[in-house]
Design goal:
7-stranded antiparallel beta sheet; 8-stranded antiparallel beta sheet; alpha/beta; binds 5-amino-5-deoxy-1-O-phosphono-D-mannitol
């Protein structure tokens, strides 16, 4: 979604803002802009389109010169992407950038109109906030921010400059994430750490209702009531290279290759003497033993990791698991009790619907566990327990390594729950854990083994209008993710179907040459899945089968076969994910799409 940046320091502010915004491009955007203090006045440059369009515009019309300012990439919510709807937005004395949504902006606009503020240029909710700040501004920025925030409903973060407070940037956070970077005699604000990592690894996390005042290369924090706050300085444990392509053509393929390391870094600190140990994450045997029901709630890819988790937890630990989409769960008045555990899975830790579910679960007395990649994110901080995945920054919109480590954590959690519940003994748990420890190596072997065939098979997909992903059991859970990955970056319509369900309607869609990708890694279900593959083949489908190297499948059932290493059935999802990711990646590349920033999508969905 939108990205906010800000800078106060000795460097060329416009250059810093544009460079920082480049690092937030992954969040998705359709316009960009900056506001910089130049000679005591606020100069604004903004445009519809990409940052390159903004730079070209500044080249033509003049680049604001100064040392303090704010910047923004906009992902349109209120009003189409256009120059005028781009941020920053201004009142007479106030200019702002905004991430999030103001739910009551229509009422506030009416209030302003009723009070003779009629000069609205854009369709945005943001301009209403700029005008409202201006309306309340009496020379005291903190009082003005407080009064304005009191009126706003929604979740948002703001970067603010006041015309009569030159060289000073104010920032405030209400739900939407915002950090403050501290360098040598320079300070930054940003929606995410990658924006500032080139300049500093040290940052503060702004909390709900806190205001940051950036001036003279340093920052002061205060509450909405002006009370000074001391904050803890965090240091990022990764560097600029992690947020760069490092020689790969796209972040997505780089992140696919980073999966072995990501899995290793995520699981190894949680394994002790050959057994999983999640105590450091606040998860005790006592908690696990008492569990009656587990709810896994998430969005998109993270929800698909939960689907795999359901199969594994239920099989090993015999605890009923319900998996739900966060935007549905939060509105269906779920039945939760103290002995239930709600697991929220989220790469960003900022997804609005997932965050709302976390709050709901807490309100209803359930225990909450967050499985999150971004340190210090809202979901991680607010959950009772947290297991951080250590995938490092994931920049491509299409999630790959974050999904892989979410799977790894699902396994660790299932093993630990199963042993706590007495469903498996130590020997079996050791055996399962040892197999998980082998996964980084096996994932690496798989990438090398299937990259060429995936590249080739993807050339057969690019002309398709529509395709199906099918599977049974864990393969079905996995095919949901394969299908999402493919559609989000290749723009080919794709559905995932439980293979046994095809005959109940969907098989009528099969026409000559329609691709059907069958995931067939579950040997206990193999014969049945093969029958389903033959059924679609007999009706003209072009079949692509992902199966293990030893699977006994007739050659004539598959037009293309992608063979992957064989490991125990239960862990096959971590291997079979790889060809699905590569098929999606190469199909998108072959179609000439913007692989890392697919149209209409944002990396972190911070609005409902
Ligand atoms: O940050 P989160 O894991 O909460 O994000 C959830 C989804 O928005 C995300 O997984 C999305 O589906 C990805 N684009 C999938 O590649």
């Amino acid at each position: 979604m939108c990205g906010i940046v800000g800078y106060v320091g000795p460097r060329d502010c416009t250059d810093v803002l544009v460079s920082a915004l480049t690092k937030l491009e992954y969040r998705g955007y359709d316009s960009a802009g900056i506001a910089v203090f130049e000679g005591g006045k606020i100069e604004v440059a903004k445009t519809k389109g990409r940052l390159a369009d903004l730079s070209a515009k500044m080249e033509r019309e003049g680049k604001p010169q100064g040392h303090a300012g704010i910047g923004h990439t906009r992902w349109a919510t209120h009003g189409e992407p256009s120059d005028v709807n781009s941020h920053p937005h201004s009142g007479r004395r106030v200019t702002i950038v905004h991430n999030g949504i103001i739910e009551n902006y229509k009422q506030l606009k009416q209030f302003l109109i009723d009070n003779d503020r009629t000069e609205f240029l854009s369709d945005t909710d943001t301009e209403v906030v700029a005008q409202l700040l201006d309306f309340y501004y009496d020379g005291n920025p903190i009082r003005c921010i407080r009064r304005t925030l009191h009126e706003l409903r929604g979740s948002f973060a703001l970067g603010i400059v006041f015309a009569d407070r030159p060289e000073t940037v104010y920032a405030v956070r209400c739900e939407s994430p915002l950090i403050v970077g501290q360098g040598q005699n320079e300070v930054f604000i940003a929606s995410d750490v990658p924006a500032i990592i080139k300049y500093t690894k040290d940052y503060y996390l702004l909390e709900y209702g806190e205001i940051a005042i950036l001036k003279n290369g340093s920052v002061q924090f205060c509450s909405l009531h002006g009370r000074v706050i001391e904050k803890e300085l965090h240091t990022a444990d990764w560097d600029e290279d992690s947020a760069e392509k490092g020689g790969y053509p796209h972040f997505m393929i780089k992140e696919i290759h980073e999966q072995p390391t990501a899995v290793k870094t995520t699981i190894m600190p949680r394994i002790e003497d050959g057994l999983p140990n999640l105590a450091e994450c606040g998860i005790t045997f006592g908690t696990l033993r008492r569990l009656k029901n587990i709810f896994i709630v998430a969005c998109g890819t993270a929800m698909h990791a939960g689907m795999v988790g359901k199969y594994v937890i239920e099989k090993l630990a015999r605890v009923p698991v319900t998996v739900d989409i966060a935007s549905e769960f939060r509105y269906r008045d779920p039945m939760l009790s103290r002995d239930d555990l709600v697991i929220i899975i989220s790469q960003s830790g900022e997804t609005a619907d997932s965050k709302a579910v976390l709050n709901l679960a807490k309100e209803r007395g359930a225990r909450t566990l967050a499985i999150v990649n971004v340190k210090g994110s809202s979901i991680a901080r607010e959950a009772d327990m947290v297991i951080y995945t250590h995938a490092g920054p994931e920049i491509a919109v299409a999630s790959t390594k974050a999904y892989m480590v979410q799977l790894a954590v699902m396994y660790l959690f299932a093993f630990e729950t199963a042993i706590a519940k007495g469903r498996i003994d130590e020997t079996e748990c050791r055996h399962l854990t040892a197999e998980l420890v082998r996964m980084p190596k096996i994932i690496e072997q798989t990438i090398n083994a299937v990259v060429d065939v995936c590249q080739y098979v993807s050339t057969k997909l690019i002309t398709a209008d529509s395709l199906l992903y099918i599977g049974r059991g864990l393969d079905y859970a996995l095919s949901m993710e394969g299908s999402l990955k493919l559609k989000e970056i290749s723009y080919i319509h794709s559905e995932s179907y439980a293979a046994g369900e095809l005959k109940h309607g969907t098989i009528s869609l099969i026409t000559e040459g329609m691709p059907v990708i069958a995931v067939a890694t579950q040997n206990t279900l193999l014969e049945k899945t093969v029958s389903n593959i033959k059924e679609v083949k007999a009706r003209g489908a072009m079949t692509i089968v992902i199966c293990d190297e030893n699977a006994d499948i007739d050659k004539d059932a598959a037009d293309y076969m992608i063979r992957i290493p064989q490991i125990s059935e239960m862990l096959m999802p971590m291997v079979a994910t790889v060809p699905m990711q590569l098929l999606a990646y190469y199909t998108s590349v072959n179609k000439g799409n913007d692989v890392d920033k697919p149209r209409n999508l944002a990396k972190s969905v911070t609005v409902e």
